[in-house]
Amino acid sequence: MSTEILDLIEPEIANMDCVYEKPDTLTDMRLHYCPGCGHGVAHRVLMEVIDELGIAEQTIGVAPVGCSVFAYHYMNIDMQEAAHGRASAVATGIKRIHPDKYVFSYQGDGDLAAIGTAETIHTVNRGENILVVFINNAIYGMTGGQMAPTTLLNMKTTTSPAGRTVETAGFPMKITEMVATLPGAYYVSRNSVHTPNAVRYLKKAITKAFQYQKEKKGTCFIEVVSNCPSGWKMTPLQANKWMEENMFPIYPPGEIKVPK
């Protein structure tokens, strides 16, 4: 942009009301995610909450393999990478060494609900005092669009080109409902980021989760039903519509387990 144009618009900008500022907990690095992907919005909401609560210096995040693997490039807090599926186990170790820190894991469905199923279930069953953020787009987004445990019946992927069937792959795994049955789970919620209202609900859920962690209540588990336009071979608008029509009936948003 030329200096002349900047000189013209800067006075106008100065007179405008600021409605949003990037939180200090997000780095200046440009997000690499595909257009329409929910990861970027989920990153922003999570970091907004940490920034507004003033806990950035006390927070440690864990990101494993998958599309979430680059989260530490964007989250301007202490981050630790974990092996595929092991984020909740690594987060457990960090929390036990630093019980006064806020600790969260940020995991995709191929990670948390497949290779990391055991770590996830046992972490929650023990009631580890951490937050687990679970991004569910029903597919392996990074590695080529393969079928995931959360892939819907009849949904086509690179490893189920004719669509997932019960006979060959079983039913889609509703791991959030499974987690909610465990006594160590204190707060369990399913959210999305495809509309402004959905983003607001997710922000409230994450805020609650960190408050419960401060109170040492046990494991908080937040699923974010998201899209994968590239993996689904759709435009962002098509992907959001498909998600509402097909994923929400199987993975309905809402609070699943709340404190009594």
What report would you give on this structure?
With 260 residues, the chain is α/β, with parallel strands linked by helices. The protein has one domain (35-257): Rossmann fold. The chain is built from 11 helices and 7 strands. The protein has a 7-stranded mixed β-sheet, with helices on both faces. The model has no long low-confidence stretch (mean pLDDT 93).
Descriptive terms for the model:
260 residues, alpha/beta, Rossmann fold, 7-stranded mixed β-sheet, 7 strands, globular
Element layout with pairings:
Layout lengths: L2 H12 L24 H15 L5 E5 L7 H4 L3 E4 L5 H11 L4 E7 H7 L1 H9 L5 E6 L29 H4 L5 H6 L4 E8 L3 H19 L4 E7 L3 H4 L3 H12 L6 E4 L3
Parallel strand pairs: 1-2, 1-3, 3-4, 4-6, 5-6
Antiparallel strand pairs: 5-7
Major pleated sheet:
7 strands, mixed
Q: How helical, in percent, are the residues?
A: 25-40%
Helix/strand order: HHEHEHEHHEHHEHEHHE
Cα separation of the termini: 56 Å
Summed up, the helix count is 11
| Gyration radius over CA | 19 Å
> What is the CATH third-level topology name?
Rossmann fold
Category from helices, strands and their pairing: alpha/beta
- Kindly report the spatial arrangement of strands forming the biggest sheet: 2-1-3-4-6-5-7
- Write down how many β-strands occur, each being a DSSP E stretch of 2 or more residues: 7
CATH class: Alpha Beta
